[in-house]
Structure formats: C-alpha cells, structure tokens
Design a protein that fits this description.
By secondary structure, the protein is α+β, with helices and mostly antiparallel strands. The chain has one domain. The chain is 35% helix and 14% strand. The strands form two sheets. A four-stranded antiparallel beta sheet has the order 1-2-6-3, with helices on both faces. Strand 4 and strand 5 form a beta hairpin. The longest helix has 22 residues. It is globular, with a radius of gyration of 17 Å.
Length: 198
C-alpha cells in the first residue's frame, strides 16, 4: 500500500494504531504531500491543485481497502473545513505516531524530508496494518528560528493561538528538510498563499 500511494503521488505514508481516537477502526493511514510538489506544478489555481492531489490520494487508499473488503473512512481534504466540527481527524498526532515527523517549536509537524511544509490527509480502516514506529530525532535542537521570527510572539513557551495571525512565517523560515532552498523561491513569488496551503 505504501508503494502504491507513493507511486500515485504521496511523498510520505505512515501507519499507526488509531483506536484511542477512533475505537471502531484499527489503523490510520496518514498521507503527506509536500508543498514543494504542489508549487512545482506551477498552476495558477494552486489551491484547487492541492485539493485534487490530496482528495485523489485519500480516495485511492479507501478504494484499496474496499477492494479487500475492509471498512474505511476519511474526510476529503477539500471538505475538511466544512466537516471539522463533526468529523475532526487529528492528522498531526497520527502522523507523529506513524513516524512521519515530530512536534516542532512552531507546534507543527516537522518532517525530516520537508520540515513543516507538508499537507496531510488521513484514512481510517478496519484492516490491521503493522504500525510504524515514532521517530527519535530532535529537529529543533539548538534552533529557535521560528520562535524568533514570529511577529506576534505566538510561539513563546507554548502556542498562543490568540496571538497567531496565520502568517506562516514559521513554516517558511524552518530550515529543516531538503526542500528548504527551493521553497524560498516559490514563497517569495507567491506571497500570501501559505495561509491556504499549510
């Protein structure tokens, strides 16, 4: 499944036990796509492109489970804002359990490959899959660039949601990930789009 989803366009795929969040399911499949992949398409409708990619991967996973006669559920990425109150999925927590990344000082998922610049979608299933192990690394050791660069001090000691303006400077300035240098070009060219991408 991991290979099939990556061939279909996923950059990251991880499995975790999700019973503590969703007792009726056994496994969460968390799928990540880098913002870099979306920007490289150079489409003018970046948000639509992002929705298409994320929804396609979500549906691909659900179809695979259906073909194996296992139940599955997962809110489509494009519909999350509409269903958040009723069907909240803790993507970040499940991604951390699945070993895709760790919680950073910006209180976002920090992945080794793309830093915090990833989109996540999750599919829950009744298929028992061997869970991945959480990562054992500290990407923020000796680094507090995001904390220092936050214009409202929303990252001091913990996440002050009431101070966050969703400028996403903490996402762009994070030096973790192989995409860091290239993403700076896109971020400069498409200022203002980060609040809809991350």
């Amino acid at each position: 499944m991991r290979q099939i989803l990556k061939k279909a366009g996923a950059d990251l795929v991880g499995f975790s036990n999700c019973r503590e969040y969703f007792p009726e399911y056994t496994t969460a499949v968390t799928i990540g796509v880098s913002a870099l992949q979306i920007y490289r398409l150079q489409r003018t409708d970046t948000i639509q492109a992002m929705n298409e990619i994320m929804d396609f991967l979500n549906l691909q996973a659900r179809q695979m489970f259906s073909e194996e006669d296992y139940g599955s559920w997962g809110t489509l990425f494009s519909q999350e804002e509409f269903s958040r109150l009723q069907n909240f999925t803790p993507h970040r927590e499940l991604a951390i359990k699945a070993g895709l990344g760790v919680l950073g000082k910006n209180f976002l998922l920090i992945t080794p490959e793309y830093g915090p610049r990833v989109q996540l979608t999750t599919v829950l299933t009744t298929m028992p899959l061997l869970p991945d192990s959480p990562l054992d690394f500290d990407p923020c050791k000796n680094c507090d660039i995001c904390v220092q660069e936050c214009p409202t001090n929303a990252l001091k000691d913990y996440f002050h949601e009431e101070l966050c303006t969703k400028c996403y400077k903490c996402v762009v300035v994070c030096p973790r990930g192989k995409d860091f240098e290239e993403i700076q070009i896109y971020a400069a060219e498409t200022a203002g789009i980060w609040s809809t991408l991350i």
